[in-house]
Specification:
Length: 246
């Protein structure tokens, strides 16, 4: 640009009231707009670097819900692995992928609760269910155990209410101890959802359990989780209805 052109430009700027400083500020503003989002992304990445890395690794990622319920990626992994072990040797084997899907679905149900779910587990040989118990504990359940009908009634009376009760069927000498416990609880007005978990279960046994007042009967760890989830949903629905009526 020649000298005369420069003077003309300056004269034009002065005439219109626009200064050279305004042009510079405009350029700076345009530059800031162009770089703002990249800078924000960079800052977020630096500040949240550790959580982002944990999320990508699916390790130590924790989700806390209302009422103290806490679920994490690591506990979900433990739950899935325990579920695979629980199904080992049973007619319905569970693959790692299927276990992960079951745990993910259960986690979604539990995420909506406003409390830590409580489960009463009744079995005269608790070691038979160690992997099943580990699965539920990793999901965030608080589990109490009883080894007899009398102990279960005491536990339910003194330390209830529970969100669900899981019971085996046979506890010598009573070959229908599961139903005995169920009827005893119902007689005293305890309506806690009840699931029979037994070594062998058939469609006929399931139907009979429902007829007796239970949610169902199963020998499958995966189906056990689904039945307990159904019990939790039913409880939540009934609680909501009672609150609306109140």
């Amino acid at each position: 640009m020649g000298l005369s052109e420069t003077r003309c430009t300056e004269a034009l700027l002065q005439h219109t009231g626009v200064t050279a400083n305004a042009i510079v500020l405009s350029d700076v503003s345009a530059f800031a707009d162009a770089t703002a989002w990249p800078l924000v992304v960079l800052i977020v990445a630096l500040v949240f670097r550790r959580p982002l890395i944990d999320l990508l690794r699916r390790d130590n990622v924790e989700m806390k819900g209302p009422g103290g319920l806490s679920l994490s990626a690591s506990s979900a992994t433990v739950a899935a692995e325990a579920l695979v072990q629980a199904a080992s040797g049973k007619p319905e084997a569970v693959t790692a992928e299927t276990a992960e899907q079951e745990i993910e679905a259960a986690s979604m149900d539990l995420a909506g609760l406003n409390k830590i779910p409580r489960l009463l587990w009744v079995d005269d040989q608790p070691s038979n269910n160690r992997y099943e118990v580990e699965t539920f504990e990793a999901l965030g359940f608080a589990i109490s155990q009883a080894t007899s009908t009398a102990e279960a009634i005491t536990e339910a009376t003194l330390n209830g209410p529970f969100d669900a009760i899981v019971s085996d069927m046979r506890r010598p000498p009573d070959q229908e101890a599961g139903f005995t416990l169920l009827h005893a609880l119902r007689r005293v007005g305890d309506a806690t959802p009840f699931v029979i978990y037994t070594g062998m279960s058939t469609p006929a046994a399931f139907d009979e359990a429902v007829r007796q007042g239970a949610i169902g009967s199963t020998s499958s760890p995966s189906e056990l989780i689904r039945l307990v989830r159904r019990a939790m949903r039913n409880n939540a629905s009934e609680t909501g209805q009672r609150r609306r009526r109140a």
